[in-house]
Design brief:
Elements: H1 2-12, H2 18-35, H3 45-57, H4 62-83, H5 109-112
Helix pairs in contact: 1-4, 2-3, 2-4
């Protein structure tokens, strides 16, 4: 995942401002902190759902979660195209509730440990 971020910034970051870099770095850091730094082929849609749940548990609004997902999807889509990978982006098609009301994240033990709960 970190390699994907680095390639994305190298290819798309030329003539971009500091905000572009900060957003990409922060969002990939969220992914790595939550579900780990693995090869793209090792992520699944289950990881995408766990990532969504972790962001909501951190207190992000649904609109912020959608913004993070959009950034991560863009980074991974570029990598898939650049390397001709035959994988599905695990962050595409993840269900997003309309708002945070009544939505309670469900975690497996492994993911629960990766998120700071109050």
């Amino acid at each position: 995942m970190n390699d994907a971020r680095d390639l994305y910034l190298r290819l798309k970051g030329e003539s971009k401002g500091d905000t572009f870099y900060r957003v990409a770095e922060r969002n990939i850091e969220y992914v790595v902190d939550t579900i780990g730094n693995r090869d793209l082929s090792q992520y699944s849609s289950t990881d995408g759902a766990a990532f969504r749940d972790a962001l909501i548990a951190r207190g992000l609004t649904i609109s912020s979660v959608k913004r993070v997902f959009s950034s991560v999807r863009s980074i991974l889509n570029l990598i898939v195209k650049e390397h001709g990978l035959q994988v599905t982006n695990p962050f595409s098609g993840t269900y997003m509730p309309e708002d945070n009301k009544g939505f309670y994240p469900v975690f497996t033990d492994g993911y629960k440990k990766a998120v700071d709960f109050p």
